[in-house]
């Protein structure tokens, strides 16, 4: 299928990656004792983790169902090869780079590394676990031909999600556990690709989003089971953001700022922790411990340096490390009837 940019998907990913960066950044500042934890920061971190990663999986599932056709073994193999190339290069390159830097500057990092093998195959360094999880989801998930099929798949993935949420800990590798959790959000994204998501596009979707922080506060106050809070907060926040963003860009016209940001979500995702940790280490090395300076420099580095790096990499053909499919795109087979 021919693929065109979908503005609301691009911009939802910008929102999601911004929250991912801020979540990781404030966690690192607290772990490094540069800033003190507080009720406000703790609530912010808890709240955004209900929905920022699910947003990514929903967007991925939406695009997968809308633009791919994986309904035979041949199509499955072709899709898996494509995703293997797309994910494996940045996964291994930046995972290994993070491992080397954490090992070389162990005195300035918050979390010490395990073995390289463990980081690559058992406990991937954040945020790279996302790439491994998403690849495995593509391996086990076909596209669906109708509403009944996709609704059945959604029901099964939801049952697994609830089971994991109630059980909390099961004796499987972390990557498998992540697949069982995020398969639901991925299939939910596929579901909205089959049903008319545009019916949700409304400025009133902001009211749907407002349910999420209220539910989080009430859940904490009254000790509501975690799985219920995650579902209420995650669903209301995801559909609220998608609905509001879809309405805001309903005319299909992208704004310059969001268009620029959308172009660099992948580099920011891959490199923000590396640059944030690097700037923090340099500031500490030269004796600067001011929280204000660390926050300003760290946030700026998290967003700006990956973009600058990607611009340079594009010019010298190192963009292969981020976008390998630009150079190693598998040959497409004719679609089966």
Explained architecture:
The chain is mostly helical. The chain is built from 13 helices and no strands. The radius of gyration is 20 Å and the shape is globular. The protein starts with 6 loop residues before the first helix and ends in a 22-residue tail after the last helix. The model has no long low-confidence stretch (mean pLDDT 91).
Structural class: mainly alpha
Oligomer: single chain
* Residues in helices, as a percent range: over 70%
Q: What percentage of amino acids are in beta strands? A: under 5%
Rg to the nearest angstrom? Answer: 20 Å
Order of secondary-structure elements = HHHHHHHHHHHHH
Gap from first CA to last CA: 14 Å
The best one-word shape is globular
Briefly say what this structure is:
This protein has 337 residues and is mostly helical. The protein contains 13 helices and no strands.
Which helices and strands occur, and which strands form pairs?
Blueprint: H1 7-31, H2 39-48, H3 52-67, H4 73-104, H5 116-121, H6 129-140, H7 147-167, H8 174-194, H9 205-222, H10 226-248, H11 256-263, H12 265-285, H13 291-315
Helix pairs in contact: 1-2, 1-3, 1-10, 1-11, 1-12, 1-13, 3-8, 4-6, 6-8, 7-8, 9-10, 12-13
